[in-house]
Amino acid sequence: MSTVHQPDLKDRPARLTVGVVGAGRVGPALAASLQLAGHRPVAVSGVSDASRRRAETMLPDVPLVPPAEVLQRADLVLLTVPDDVLPGLVAGLAETGAVRPGQLLVHTSGRFGAKVLDPALRAGALPLALHPAMTFTGTPVDVQRLAGCSFGVTAPEELRLAAEALVIEMGGEPEWISEQNRPLYHAALALGANHLVTLVAQSMELLRTAGVAAPDRMLGPLLGAALDNALRSGDAALTGPVARGDAGTVAAHVTELRKHAPQTVAGYLAMARATADRALAHGLLKPELAEDLLGVLADGGHAGQAGEGTDGTNGSDGTTGTEGNDR
């Protein structure tokens, strides 16, 4: 079992009682992680049957109580609710007097910084925004996966050390995000992670339609290599027909997608155009090949002869694979 580096005792916050408002996938995992660091979960609230079952699994023997009672019992409260719910929840808790002076109030929204907690701050709470940049399953495996996870952290300067200590105790790595940059930070993560899931799911469905029995086994090595190369090399990792300027191949793709999965066409065209723009900007796509390709994309894939490349082959270099050359 892997061990998580803990901060020195002098840097660690005092052992705290922990409460969770919103027993979705994130809150129970963070509370369980804090429990491993010596803190004590004392209360959790959940609305749905699924959230209550999750709390019972991840935080056994921790009582399920209403949100206001969670705040009465806990020194550190995790507000792990959907983004759109958070402002109203904070305002309501502050208005009803549930917030206690000196109480650490932590939300895990990527979109919001610490200012969304201003109503609680005015009531004397200590506001922290700690967003784990990870996908959660709602199972105990999430606790182990927090090791090495980056957290987007926003907090008042005087709470910086406390925020960092809590993140480190959960096994994470704090990354400071300014208040004004929180929405952009969150958009970047959603673009890279959430949309990736959609792309992979669509790709697997198309492979099944094409007769591939185990699309996950086929995609796994390809996607793993593509992700690794992209993280290491950025745009230089671009390969495939768009980066090569294979207008005929791209037109053939769109023709097949319209036939078998028309709901994927808009996304394919948008991503192909973005890929072409980046390939051009970085000198990966030759301008003389880009004209036909951009014409196909602008025409929605109707231009060109489906299945034929610009030189009469299945690609401009006479190949058919996704990496017909080193680009």
CATH architecture of the largest domain: 3-Layer(aba) Sandwich
List the total number of helices: 13
Q: What overall form do the CA principal axes indicate?
A: elongated
Biggest β-sheet description? 7 strands, mixed
What is the radius of gyration?
A: 25 Å
Side by side, the strands of the main sheet go 2-1-3-4-5-6-7
Relative helix content:
40-55%
Which class do the helix and strand fractions yield?
alpha/beta
Please report the first level of CATH classification, the CATH class of the largest domain: Alpha Beta
Number of domains: 2
How far do the termini sit from each other?
41 Å
Oligomer: single chain
Average of the residue pLDDT scores? 90
CATH topology of the largest domain: Rossmann fold
* Relevant CATH superfamily of the largest domain: NAD(P)-binding Rossmann-like Domain
> Uncertain regions: pLDDT < 50 for 5+ in a row?
1-12, 304-327
